[in-house]
Design goal:
Layout: E1 2-3, H1 6-17, H2 20-27, E2 31-35, H3 57-60, H4 64-80, H5 83-106, E3 113-117, H6 137-142, H7 149-173, E4 180-183, E5 206-209, H8 224-235, E6 247-252, E7 257-262
Parallel strand pairs: 2-3
Antiparallel strand pairs: 1-7, 4-5, 6-7
Helix pairs in contact: 5-7
Length: 263
């Protein structure tokens, strides 16, 4: 395993910004709509960046205040910061991104569009309980240090309801003519159980809707590295070769982060 530092986050942020999917679609006349915390080439993010160290965070991450926050952890947060502000910001960001995605599906344009929406759910913070009631922000903020499966599972009903509403709205507003790609970038990965099989961290959500309902090119246990290769082969009659299905696993601690590849 190799240590992961700010340069790695910077490289990944650049990979997202300058990704091949966007270039492929733009070359075929698609306009790109960015409803995410990440910048895309020519289409910067319009929302805050509450979770990942991108943009200015890649610089501030190297400052003294960041090292103090990282190494003194919860003590510093308890005495000098209000972590509930971050929780509130993430909630507002999710609400904003959902509203923008639904509003975009109502628009009619002369050009085809690729609408990228990245939600921070059921990612921590776990804002709602199993009855879809808003949880106490202070409790939610304190869970960052010791995250367990209970709050995560409790957050799933709220997340599932919002996703169903989003997909139903897209299908209704587009008359069922839009391709819908619902996929996660990882599964539940925060646990103090060191015996967990890392492969379980990437049992991702992955559902595709094609207007013609032809899913023959997809296969069981496909990983994200081949998702758009299969989609482009179907929709654009490409012959893009598939890669060996694999994932990259990274984990961060107060002292360092590690990176490993799982086939």
């Amino acid at each position: 395993m190799d240590e992961v530092g700010p340069e790695d986050f910077a490289n990944q942020a650049e990979s997202i910004r300058n990704n091949e999917v966007i270039h492929f679609l733009a070359a075929r006349g698609y306009s790109i709509v960015n409803n995410s915390i990440f910048d895309l080439a020519g289409v910067p993010s319009t929302v805050d960046e509450p979770l990942v160290p991108t943009k200015t965070k890649l610089i501030t991450q190297r400052t003294l205040i960041n090292y103090i926050t990282r190494d003194m952890g919860s003590w510093f947060e308890m005495h000098f910061a209000d972590p509930t502000n971050r929780v509130a910001r993430i909630y507002r960001t999710n609400v904003q991104l959902l509203a923008q995605a639904i509003e975009e599906s109502r628009r009619t344009t002369s050009k085809p569009r690729f609408v990228y929406t990245h939600l921070m759910m059921p990612h921590a913070p776990y804002l709602f309980d199993s009855l879809q009631r808003k949880r106490d922000p202070g409790i939610v903020a304190r869970e960052y240090e010791f995250i367990s499966t209970g709050p995560y599972l409790g957050y799933l009903p709220y997340t599932n309801a919002r996703i169903r509403e989003l997909i139903a709205a897209i299908k209704k507003n587009t008359g069922g003519k839009a391709v819908i790609i619902f996929m996660s970038d990882h599964g539940f990965r925060y646990t103090q159980d060191k015996s967990i099989d890392l492969k379980n961290v990437y049992f991702n959500h992955n559902t595709i809707y094609f207007p013609d309902r032809d899913y023959r090119l997809f296969y069981d246990s496909i990983t994200s590295v081949n998702e758009f290769r299969v989609i482009f082969n179907k929709l654009f009659n490409q012959n893009i070769p598939l890669l060996k299905d694999s994932v990259i696993f990274s984990t961060e601690s107060n002292q360092h982060a590690t990176l490993s590849k799982i086939q």
